[in-house]
């Protein structure tokens, strides 16, 4: 059975967003990227196990797919951008009741019951499923008990306020699957729901 892996950028104080201001994130891949080589290698290693990407409508419409398609074309032989090629090659599913047809290649729109759609994806053959979306999308997946692994990319920043992803769920115990600090200041912590 496929695993649903939720990856989120997060501040040290647990916020995942602050009014569309992303300057606190070390995420910017490119010539002036703040991620160190070891973090890029580890990110690509995780992404090599993924063959499906689950996206929120908002993330798809705001250019996530176009951005990484362009990056894959711009850096075709750069090993640091292997994940960009995986995004282009992977099957994508956009969950939305508003969209009726996909505007993107290798992408389909799924609507309806969130647990039914996600559980159907998990029953499929192949690699794991990576989830990318905002706080609301992540919260809904967590509250429905659909996430098998949480990967928090904890940035060396304190926001003091913003959006969180655990506001919709009650108490939940998690089991640490691994944690690693990187030279750039990022700490990646992986958790699974404790059974």
Structure commentary:
With 195 residues, this protein is of the alpha/beta class. It has one domain (4-193): Dihydrofolate Reductase, subunit A (3-Layer(aba) Sandwich), CATH 3.40.430. The chain is built from six helices and eight strands, in the order E-H-E-H-H-H-E-E-H-E-H-E-E-E. It has helices at residues 37-47, 57-61, 64-74, 82-89, 114-122, 135-143; strands at 4-11, 50-56, 91-95, 107-110, 128-132, 149-155, 174-181, 187-193. Helix 3 crosses helix 4 (82-89). The mean pLDDT is 87.
Top-tier CATH class: Alpha Beta
Number of strands: 8
> Could you give the order of strands across the largest sheet?
4-3-2-5-1-6-8-7
**H and E order:** EHEHHHEEHEHEEE
Please identify which CATH superfamily we are dealing with.
Dihydrofolate Reductase, subunit A
CATH architecture: 3-Layer(aba) Sandwich
Q: Biggest β-sheet: count, sense, barrel?
A: 8 strands, mixed
Q: Report strand %.
A: 25-35%
Helix content: 25-40%
Provide a short characterization of the protein structure:
The chain is α/β, with parallel strands linked by helices and 195 residues long.
Topology diagram in text:
Layout: E1 4-11, H1 37-47, E2 50-56, H2 57-61, H3 64-74, H4 82-89, E3 91-95, E4 107-110, H5 114-122, E5 128-132, H6 135-143, E6 149-155, E7 174-181, E8 187-193
Parallel strand pairs: 1-5, 1-6, 2-3, 2-5, 3-4
Antiparallel strand pairs: 6-8, 7-8
Helix pairs in contact: 3-4
